[in-house]
């Protein structure tokens, strides 16, 4: 007998037929002799509709506590419907919401972006074993938590995935199954490229990076709750079969991405190349990077404008790069000149919170402005910010932005 956690996303239970198919897949797994804990999201578009209703009716006058209670109605409805359908198929089921004595997920009192109390939740999750041992299929609300005073809380984006992985860990499940509207993890978006192929497996770290940069299959925050000893997979609801192979998520989570601030230990040099309308000329950036790559010169950053390209390289390589690129400029009709700028310092800030932190660039740059530190260039991704400042300001800038990150 195995214990499986099956999480159904909103699209996989988007209407009556889909809910029945989902319930049947759970019952089929149960009839094989396995135990199943079901986690459900709100039925497709329910949460969006609730948000719109609130916006159209009370807008900003709603309190966080009220909003959390309103949003919880989507999952509250889902568990009741799913549990009823499972029972109609001949198997006992019990829905578990934050008002239940067996509710497993406890949080702090930040009702709309609650943080999980791991030890308390792990202890409470054991209560589900009593239900499972009676041959009952528990259906648990995803996304929701219960605060220290019994208030309903929400986990924010990816909350239902978090619920599934946390229960998998706490109950020592054999497998966590994420049921969604795709066959698994694809090589790219199949709606954009028809040749996209399903991956048989993907590592936790690859999945996290893919999710961080926009893939909608699984929320990156949920992966830190994946137990390395527990199998996990992503499958499509279309098959109505929890044994479908889908895409297996393999390997351990190597710990949450650390918040770090790094001052590159060596000076950086700037080479600027100019030319009229150069960005309209296909292949120019490729020519520049190819010349440097062939000579083992690493590029730390590139900034492109309408009539210029600025390249950031290690100072020790600057003279060689300067001469190589000068030869290219001379031979090119599109380029007119280049210059070798002064030495600068490079700061790199990394945090998994950047993707969901509005105003983070402002938070980082304001202390620099207040201390009269000029920013030569700044670039950002969803998890990192890179800042170039004048070399003399490097140490001071490092201390200032480090304080912001901490």
UniProtKB/TrEMBL annotation:
<feature type="domain" description="ACT">
    <location>
        <begin position="349"/>
        <end position="406"/>
    </location>
</feature>
<dbReference type="GO" id="GO:0004072">
    <property type="term" value="F:aspartate kinase activity"/>
</dbReference>
<dbReference type="InterPro" id="IPR005260">
    <property type="entry name" value="Asp_kin_monofn"/>
</dbReference>
<dbReference type="GO" id="GO:0005524">
    <property type="term" value="F:ATP binding"/>
</dbReference>
<dbReference type="GO" id="GO:0009088">
    <property type="term" value="P:threonine biosynthetic process"/>
</dbReference>
<dbReference type="InterPro" id="IPR045865">
    <property type="entry name" value="ACT-like_dom_sf"/>
</dbReference>
<protein>
    <recommendedName>
        <fullName>Aspartokinase</fullName>
        <ecNumber>2.7.2.4</ecNumber>
    </recommendedName>
</protein>
<dbReference type="Pfam" id="PF13840">
    <property type="entry name" value="ACT_7"/>
</dbReference>
<dbReference type="InterPro" id="IPR001048">
    <property type="entry name" value="Asp/Glu/Uridylate_kinase"/>
</dbReference>
<feature type="domain" description="ACT">
    <location>
        <begin position="273"/>
        <end position="347"/>
    </location>
</feature>
<dbReference type="GO" id="GO:0009089">
    <property type="term" value="P:lysine biosynthetic process via diaminopimelate"/>
</dbReference>
<keyword id="KW-0028">Amino-acid biosynthesis</keyword>
<dbReference type="GO" id="GO:0005829">
    <property type="term" value="C:cytosol"/>
</dbReference>
<dbReference type="InterPro" id="IPR001341">
    <property type="entry name" value="Asp_kinase"/>
</dbReference>
<comment type="pathway">
    <text>Amino-acid biosynthesis; L-threonine biosynthesis; L-threonine from L-aspartate: step 1/5.</text>
</comment>
<dbReference type="InterPro" id="IPR027795">
    <property type="entry name" value="CASTOR_ACT_dom"/>
</dbReference>
<comment type="pathway">
    <text>Amino-acid biosynthesis; L-lysine biosynthesis via DAP pathway; (S)-tetrahydrodipicolinate from L-aspartate: step 1/4.</text>
</comment>
<dbReference type="InterPro" id="IPR018042">
    <property type="entry name" value="Aspartate_kinase_CS"/>
</dbReference>
<comment type="similarity">
    <text>Belongs to the aspartokinase family.</text>
</comment>
<dbReference type="GO" id="GO:0009090">
    <property type="term" value="P:homoserine biosynthetic process"/>
</dbReference>
<keyword id="KW-0547">Nucleotide-binding</keyword>
<keyword id="KW-0418">Kinase</keyword>
<dbReference type="InterPro" id="IPR036393">
    <property type="entry name" value="AceGlu_kinase-like_sf"/>
</dbReference>
<keyword id="KW-0067">ATP-binding</keyword>
<dbReference type="Pfam" id="PF00696">
    <property type="entry name" value="AA_kinase"/>
</dbReference>
<keyword id="KW-0808">Transferase</keyword>
<dbReference type="InterPro" id="IPR002912">
    <property type="entry name" value="ACT_dom"/>
</dbReference>
């Amino acid at each position: 007998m195995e214990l499986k956690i099956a999480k159904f996303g909103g699209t996989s239970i988007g209407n009556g037929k889909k809910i029945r198919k989902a319930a049947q897949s759970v019952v089929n797994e149960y009839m094989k002799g396995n135990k199943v804990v079901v986690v459900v999201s709100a039925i497709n578009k329910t949460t969006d509709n609730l948000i719109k209703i609130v916006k159209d009716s009370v807008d900003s006058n709603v309190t966080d506590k009220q909003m959390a209670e309103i949003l919880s109605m989507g999952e509250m409805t889902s568990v009741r419907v799913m549990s009823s359908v499972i029972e109609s198929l001949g198997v006992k089921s019990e829905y578990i919401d934050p008002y239940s004595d067996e509710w497993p997920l406890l949080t702090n009192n930040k009702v709309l972006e609650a943080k999980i109390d791991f030890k308390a939740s792990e202890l409470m999750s054991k209560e589900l074993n009593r239900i499972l041992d009676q041959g009952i299929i528990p259906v648990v609300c995803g996304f929701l938590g219960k605060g220290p005073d019994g208030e309903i809380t929400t986990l924010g984006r990816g909350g239902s995935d978090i619920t599934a992985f946390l229960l998998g860990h706490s109950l020592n499940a054999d497998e966590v199954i994420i049921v969604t509207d795709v066959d698994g993890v694809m090589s790219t978006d199949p709606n954009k490229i028809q040749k996209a192929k399903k991956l048989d497996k993907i590592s936790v770290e690859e999945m996290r990076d893919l999710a961080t940069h926009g893939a909608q299959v699984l929320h990156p925050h949920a992966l830190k709750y994946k137990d390395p000893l527990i199998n996990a997979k992503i499958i499509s609801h279309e098959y109505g079969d929890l044994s479908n192979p889908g895409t297996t998520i393999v390997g351990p989570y190597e710990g949450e991405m650390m918040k770090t601030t790094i001052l590159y230990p060596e000076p950086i040099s700037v080479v600027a190349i100019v030319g009229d309308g150069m960005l309209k000329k296909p292949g120019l950036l490729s020519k520049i990077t190819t010349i440097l790559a062939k000579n083992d010169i690493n590029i730390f950053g590139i900034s492109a404008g309408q009539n210029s390209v600025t390249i950031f390289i290690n100072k020790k390589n600057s003279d060689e790069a300067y001469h190589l690129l000068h030869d290219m400029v001379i031979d090119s009709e599109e380029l007119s000149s280049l210059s070798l700028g002064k030495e600068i310092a490079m700061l790199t800030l990394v945090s998994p919170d950047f993707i969901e932190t509005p105003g983070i660039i402002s938070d980082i740059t304001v202390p620099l402005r207040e201390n009269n530190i000029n920013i030569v260039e700044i670039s950002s991704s969803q998890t990192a910010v890179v800042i170039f400042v004048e070399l003399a300001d490097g140490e001071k800038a490092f201390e200032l932005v480090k304080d912001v990150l901490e």
